[in-house]
Amino acid sequence: MRPVPMNAIRRVLMSWFSGGTPYVSASGVLDFSASRAYLSRLEADHGVKVSVQALVAAALGRVHAEFPQANRRILGGRLYQPPSVGLAMPVNLLGHAGGARMELSMMVMEEVDRKSLRRINDELRGAVKDERRGEPKNPVLRQITALAERLPGPLVHHGFQALSLVLDSPALASLSWRLAPATVGLSNPGAVHSMGSGILFRAAAAQLPVRPVHVAGLFGVSTVQDEVFAIDGRPEVRPGLPLIYIFDHRLIDGVLAGRVLMRLGELLQHPERHFGADGLAEPPAVAAEVRA
Questions:
Q1: What pTM does this model have?
Q2: For residues 13 and 77, what is the distance between their CA atoms, to the nearest angstrom?
Q3: Would you call 155 exposed, middle or buried from its count of C-beta atoms within 10 A (0-12, 13-18, 19+)?
Q4: In the sheet that 73-75 helps form, which strands lie side by side, from edge to edge?
Q5: 10 Å Cβ neighbour count for 84?
Q6: Residue 195: pLDDT band by 50, 70, 90 thresholds?
Q7: Among candidate residues 96, 89, 70, 99, the one with its CA nearest the CA of residue 4
Q8: What span, in angstroms and rounded, lies between the C-alpha atoms of 259 and 108?
């Protein structure tokens, strides 16, 4: 990973937030009608069933490539710019073979800024199957699970501290990235449930840990639900996607966070333009490399 110089305000913010949480949360609801229609066309015209999670993951890859400040990692009080955008996503294991050992797992999808929507969708489905079979691929999660299963509580604590020192060391920045190649989280609280009549998901907040791996931001989406939007000054009922964004204020401020959210909304409201009618359009940077 590449070290990033810090200006005066970043140094001040690093010190200011050293005694408390640096994370700030924002929430809203996105008009999901264009995305829903797009996903339906992909299935009808190309026989490809793309999940909402895959679509959001693809959009986040492109957003964070455009706003690299929101895709940085803090190691030992220093800023580093990762070489790509990686997403960490929880996987529910209850009711599956992997659930015999633990209720929840975590998968990491690398280089989402360099992949088409359909490639992300295929890799996501494969990764979820592996996790639910009880075959996690992430080495950090495997080590943490092994420690928790084999060692007494105090030794687990010390082992976790040792792992944190490795992952938070500027001298081991490249190794830290190889072990945990993600800076952004994507969760889907309640997305597997239908809210039902008279129930709406509105907002959420989380206290993100700063160890063992620094997370620059976390996005959460819930189940798509009917909402009333003002369209040309008139109320319309449309499918809405509840969205939360929790970002590290040491990295970005509210202005840039707003730009991240606005760009994410633009991608999801015009998905065919950005991901292609067949879902195979490459991200702009990759497409430029191919043309060159």
A1: 0.91
A2: 11
A3: exposed
A4: 2-4, 78-81, 73-75
A5: 18
A6: low
A7: 70
A8: 25
> Strand 184-187 and strand 225-231: pairing?
unpaired
Please tell me what DSSP assigns to residue 140: H
Q: Where are the domains of the chain?
A: 2-291
Distance between CA 77 and CA 250 in Å, rounded?
Answer: 10
Contact 219, 184 (CB under 8 A): yes
Query: What residue type is 243 in one-letter code?
Result: L
Asked if 187 and 219 count as a contact pair (C-beta separation under 8 A), the reply is yes
Q: Give the closest residue to 77 by CA, choosing from 29, 27, 1, 10.
A: 10
User: What CATH number does the domain located at 2-291 have?
Assistant: 3.30.559.10
Give the whole-angstrom CA distance, residue 248 versus residue 22: 5
Q: What is the 3-state secondary structure (H, E, C) of 239-286?
A: EEEEEEEEEECCCCCHHHHHHHHHHHHHHHHCHHHHHCCCCCCCCHHH
Percent of the chain having pLDDT more than 70?
Answer: 94
